[in-house]
Design goal:
By secondary structure, the protein is α+β, with helices and mostly antiparallel strands. 32% of the residues lie in helices and 14% in strands. It contains 13 helices and 12 strands. The strands form 2 sheets. Strands 4, 5, 6, 7, 8, 9, 10, 11 and 12 form a 9-stranded antiparallel beta sheet that branches. A 3-stranded mixed beta sheet has the order 1-2-3.
Length: 431
Amino acid sequence: MKKLTALLLALALCVSLSVPALAAGTSFSDVPAGHWAYNAIHAAAGKGIISGYSDGTFRPTRPLTNAQFAVMLARAFFPEESEALRIQTESKPWYWANLQALYNHRILAGTALDAVSKWHSAAAQDISRYDVAQMLYNILTDQGRTTTLEQRAAARIKIPDWPSIHSNYRMAVSTCYALGLLNGREDGRFSGAAAMNRAQSCMVLNRLADYLAIPVQAPWPEEEDPKPTTVAVSSVRKPTETGSTTGWSVHDNAYPDGILNNGKRMTPENVCAMLEDAKQIWYDGMPWGGIVKGDNNYYDAYAFDGLLTHGGELVVAQGGTPTTNAGGFSAMLSDYVFGLHANQGRKLEDNTQVRPGDIIFQMANGKLHHTRIALSTVQYQSGIPFVSTCDGNIGAAVSWDDGTQEDSCRLDGYSQNGAHITCVVYTRYPE
């Protein structure tokens, strides 16, 4: 009974990690009385098992990740084992010990997290309705809760897209339908590949509480303040004989692999949004180069903790400098987006798979010629692959692509001024 009570509390918390609970009866500015999940959200909040954000919102459409959902299950059912594993795996990502505890008890079986080798890439991905059903089914099985063949057969009739449901998930889906824990979306279909969001999780919580008939006795303890959702940068200006030089440093928010430096999931859209923010800091035309007269800017790749950053390491490995010139600018933007010591880079085997935020090293006869940051996916002009880019030290200044071919980077091999130009692309996205 104690473990099942903790389950309800933990499942609720997973939708609002690290946010202090709001008082019972508090309304959410983005959940009006007519919202389809209004009663479920406010019932959960009133019982102290779920909370909103400090700005008074609930953000009902925000999806859950695989790790968020799984970590709370581990804290509910295997708290002692999770804690023991946490001590043993302090150098691992924040979710590692909890996932290991679930893995040891086969709670992750049949999900995107069913193999340890998948954790880095799958942890930050949105959890699908398939995997929600599978984890709930595995927990129910662990607790000895079962359904009959007749119950599951009756449930299948209620699922219009049953023929398209993957056979691996049919037992979990029909069981959850039979127990009333899950049902169809607006069009009636189960849509197993779709993500589960915060509002939907409240509905699952209320149904699970009704099925298990377990009263909520106390709210889950508050967690520490949430990590930042913005990336702080700082600069130090020093006078020179002909002007000044400014050293820039990027703060590391210490998110795990698979998460951007602002805490968001690693998607091209989120990377592009961060690069747009970076453009406001390191604006088009800002002085940036090597040894130049007048004002100049550079990246202090060692400033945060005295260690060379992952972005800096990639530039050095290709023969560039991680502080000045185009290499320093690219290392700085890469660290700003992906973090200083998370999301280590890897070489792309196919340059046409480039994504926003990737580092492009232009090589002339095998030696580093220039370094750029991709701003888009591959584009083709007259059959030639290009990508929009930004860089430093073009005319001793920062340059952001304005959409013209001259400001883009050609990804194939070609000859220019007697040199053979090729590109080597490194990405910090997971495989």
